[in-house]
Amino acid sequence: MASIDGRSAGIVLKSAREIELMRQAGRLVWQILERMGELVRPGVTTGELNEVAEQMIADAGASALFKGVRTPHARIAFPAALCTSVNEEVVHGIPGARKLLEGDIISIDCGVKVNGYCGDSARTFAVGQVSARVKHLLEVTQGALDLAIAEIRAGPMWSVIARQIQAFVEGEGLSVVREFVGHGIGREMHEEPKVANYYDRSQKKSDFALDAGLTLAIEPMVNLGGAAVEYARPERWVVVTRDRSCAAHFEHTVAVTSNGAEVLTRM
After folding, report:
1. Pair 140, 174: CB distance under 8 Å
2. Eight-state DSSP code of residue 94
3. What is the CA radius of gyration of the chain?
4. Given this model, what pLDDT does residue 2 score?
5. How far, in Å, CA of 81 to CA of 223, rounded?
6. Which class is 3-263 in CATH?
7. E strand or H helix at 57, and its extent?
8. Element (H, E) at 117
9. Contact indicator for 249, 182 with CB cutoff of 8 Å
10. What is the pLDDT of residues 26-44, one digit of tens each?
11. Domain ranges of the chain
12. Are 166 and 198 in contact (CB under 8 A)?
């Protein structure tokens, strides 16, 4: 679940033991998203996807990070284990009766807590055949996440990587979402720092060093059209592109080490 952009402070580094506990949560998230990929097809509802995820979480003795979350801007607690964001929905889509159609895309974000530690990951799936432009959107967004993971190592500032993400995405003719960003993660879903996928003067005060033991949920959100987003509904959860172009979202939970990044949300 994406974090609203803001200043970072109070970063907590994790021990090797804590990172291993986070890996347990990450494996469950990976399993759930693998299952979602098998189930995504024309005719399935976003609510049906959520039911399967909730059962998998319960069967594992875990808890769903998103369900029941409250924020100052939202009028209701988030009601589901998954965020299911379709087409122009960027993040925080609420599962329900909506049926997926041929040519849609759906971003599925899942977070769980296992033995007191969290894992958070997202993927965007094509529903059947999609247009060449939308396929490019998915490839670039996945590529932005892959780029970030490949560049992570202990020592540099995050802004070095944020600039590369932005340059890569914009070089492909797409736009990086600015209002919602990644986040630190560990015992809580949202910890410091905020992990932006772009860099400008507004980010200078919230920049941070990539120290060994830092655990981050890195989640580029990329729009096919302009970068601007807005809330779509009165409950103020679902975020959509202002121009109603399609959006994609990929995320992994990673640990920074002296040798690079350890991805905790994949097998």
Report:
1. yes
2. P
3. 17
4. 85
5. 24
6. alpha beta
7. helix 46-59
8. strand 117-126
9. no
10. 999 999 999 999 999 999 9
11. 3-263
12. yes
